[in-house]
Specification:
mainly beta
Length: 163
């Protein structure tokens, strides 16, 4: 996923643009701004970083004022490989655990299809409607997402600084 300031992805439901770089909890993240096509939904920001061919997404929980990082994709996996993710506890997961809520720390990512240019992941979280499939294209990023609730998000176009 080409993370650089100014890069934009245009999807059927929203636009995402890299708008800056932030250091959060000692790690460098690219800040993305998400603008929904339906203007009733507010502007949303989130952070991503890539390390060792693994894409991480950092989200902010407004209720607790805490960040939580998730592994989104592992590009070195081969077709059929499954990665079981057990994230270390953080303030938010410990708070959720104490309240009897899902922690989001344990889930699996399976590569269902891979060729030289694309990779398809199925993420199983074990939560209701929490499973989804994502397809990434080399040099472009996410080109399709199908959520467990049935919504399909597809890339329409993109605009990169070096394109």
């Amino acid at each position: 996923m080409p993370l650089a300031i100014g890069n934009k992805w245009y999807y059927n439901f929203h636009t995402s643009e890299v708008v800056g770089i932030d250091t959060i909890e000692g790690k460098k993240y690219f800040k993305l701004k998400k603008v929904n096509v339906n203007t009733k939904f507010p502007l949303y920001s989130y952070h991503k970083r890539i390390s060792n061919d693994t894409l991480y997404t950092l989200n902010y929980d407004q209720k607790s004022n805490l960040y939580f990082e998730r592994v989104t994709a592992i590009f070195t996996l081969d077709s059929g490989d499954v990665a079981r993710i057990e994230l270390p506890p953080n303030e938010l997961s410990l708070k959720n655990e104490a309240e009897g809520l899902p922690t989001g720390r344990s889930y699996s990512i399976k590569v269902t299809n891979k060729d030289e240019n694309t990779i398809e992941f199925f993420t199983y979280s074990g939560m209701i409607d929490g499973d989804y499939t994502e397809i990434y294209k080399r040099g472009v990023g996410m080109v399709k997402l199908k959520g467990g609730w049935g919504q399909i998000i597809e890339l329409i176009d993109y605009d990169f600084n070096n394109k």
